[in-house]
Write a structure and sequence with these properties.
Layout (H helix, E strand, L loop, with lengths): L4 E5 L5 H10 L6 E7 L9 H19 L4 H4 E6 L4 H18 L3 E4 L5 H13 L4 E6 L6 E5 H8 L6 H11 L5 H8 L3 H13 L3 E4 L2 E4 L1 H11 L1
Helix pairs in contact: 4-5, 5-6, 7-8, 8-9
């Protein structure tokens, strides 16, 4: 098992990636995975390709300056960004694969394309194993460190309630009224009504004249559970 795995999006500057590596003192036993918007198919003169390749060159130069061979440590994964769902479908398996290969996975959210950064954060929250999250402010004066479990406990404590998931799954089959949902999931009408009120606050379900249905976010949440 690898000692540590570092994952970072590629931005148009190498500074935040290098700061990330310096902060954790990357060694020869570590692995660095950089996530780039798909660029190799673009014309050599395109701005995205030129800036991405320039960033990669600078990161490799930093690794060489510290005696670390880029070919042994560095791996680049190109990510399609046609939609957030496409992006997530590619990044979630990467994060989960890394968390199985190493008990020490570190994610840099300080740089890169916003869609990839967003998908990387969501992927970390969906990963059962502990993932360390690193964020540096643009002025480089502050660094924030936490874990996916810590964020999950703050933001999604409600979703640990399996009843919420059961209700969402029941509604995913089609619009349902409260009593229909209660019969489907085996809960009282009162308990379902209370849960639905909370799910509406979280914007996961919405009420229509024909009953309750999932919102786009609700559908996305259930899709993410399948990854």
């Amino acid at each position: 098992m690898l000692q540590r795995i570092f994952i970072s999006p590629i931005g148009f500057t190498h500074r935040f990636i290098v700061d990330f590596l310096v902060h954790y003192r990357v060694t020869l036993n570590d692995k660095l995975i950089l996530l780039a918007r798909k660029y190799s198919h673009l014309p050599p003169s395109s701005e995205t390709r030129m800036k991405t390749e320039e960033t990669l060159i600078r990161v490799k130069e930093y690794l060489l300056s510290t005696g670390l061979p880029p070919d042994d440590i560095l791996e680049v994964r190109e990510i399609p960004v046609e939609s957030l769902w496409t992006c997530l479908s590619n990044i979630v398996p990467i994060v989960r694969e890394c968390s199985k290969r190493s008990e020490h996975v570190y994610i840099n959210l300080s740089c890169g394309m916003r869609m990839i950064v967003t998908a990387l954060l969501i992927a970390s929250l969906l990963t059962p194993n502990v993932v360390h999250i690193f964020l540096e402010t643009e002025d480089s004066l502050h660094v924030f460190e936490t874990t996916n479990r810590r964020i999950r406990s703050i933001l999604f404590s409600d979703m640990l309630d399996s009843n919420y998931i059961r209700i969402l799954l029941a509604i995913s089959e089609g619009k349902r009224r409260v009593r229909e949902i209660a019969n489907k999931v085996g809960l009282s009408v009162g308990a379902v009504s209370k849960s639905l009120a909370r799910l509406r606050e979280l914007e996961l379900v919405e009420k229509t004249t024909d009953g309750f249905q999932l919102t786009e976010i609700g559908h996305l949440l259930l899709k993410l559970r399948e990854l």
